[in-house]
Design brief:
This protein has eight helices and no strands. The chain is an all-alpha fold. It has one domain (3-230).
Length: 231
């Protein structure tokens, strides 16, 4: 396997890992919001579990559908724009060659080095198209398979939700909610830090941000549940 293929394989792996991390986080947060709301309304464990399971599976399907449609649209847009660039290269090569020259001049190439780069890029049509897509349109070729990305985020969403629901199989009432809250915060701490590592940002800040989001979801859900419980 050459370096180019290895790079694309690595990028695909990181992309699917990102979907898994996001899926678990969403499963944790959304399910916590649901069970907190139902618990706040003073419902029994069975009602909490049923509501949580319904929300978890509908959330997984929704996330999968959204991911599938967004990645499919991204691929279709790239394909359409690449076809347009190919047509322009075939029908107005002089203009497109000048644009390539401008792109690489802006990147610091000069003189003979610039001439050589332009000649090298324009000697291969696919390389030329890719260079135009990245340099002119700032578009990189999508590496995700739409259905695989959708499956990854859906399958990751469910375990996240189950972590939050599990305490309601063992404990009752407020105790179950508190244990669910602690487990969810722990999960968000772990996966928030993983997301930050993928994005190459501050790990501590990323983990704390996810915990804050989880706390807000739990607080909002519980408050709404209390309100409806009183009404």
């Amino acid at each position: 396997m050459n370096l180019h293929k290895e790079a694309h394989s690595s990028l695909r792996s990181r992309t699917y890992l990102r979907e898994i991390v996001f899926g678990v986080e969403d499963g944790l947060i959304s399910t916590l919001g649901i069970v907190a709301g139902v618990s706040g309304a003073a419902a029994g464990n069975m009602v909490v579990l049923l509501a949580g399971l319904a929300g978890m599976f509908s959330g997984a399907v929704s996330m999968a559908a959204g991911t599938y449609l967004s990645t499919k649209s991204e691929r279709e847009l790239y394909k359409r724009e690449a076809a347009r660039e190919a047509w322009e290269i075939d029908h107005q090569p002089a203009i497109e060659r000048k644009e390539i020259r401008d792109i690489y001049r802006a990147r610091g190439f000069k003189g003979k080095q610039l001439d050589q780069m332009v000649k090298l890029v324009t000697s291969n049509k696919q390389v030329w198209i890719n260079a135009m897509m990245e340099g002119e349109l700032n578009m990189s070729k999508p590496t995700e398979c739409s259905w695989k990305a959708a499956a990854a985020i859906a399958l990751a969403f469910v375990p996240g939700g189950l972590v939050t629901l599990a305490p309601f199989l063992v404990f009752e009432g407020v105790t179950a909610l508190l244990v669910a809250f602690v487990l969810t915060m722990g999960g968000l701490l772990v996966f928030g830090s993983m997301k930050s590592r993928l994005a190459k940002t501050n790990v501590v800040v990323g983990a704390l941000e996810m915990m804050v989001v989880g706390m807000l979801a739990a607080g909002a859900g519980y408050s709404i549940g209390l309100l409806f419980g009183v009404l």
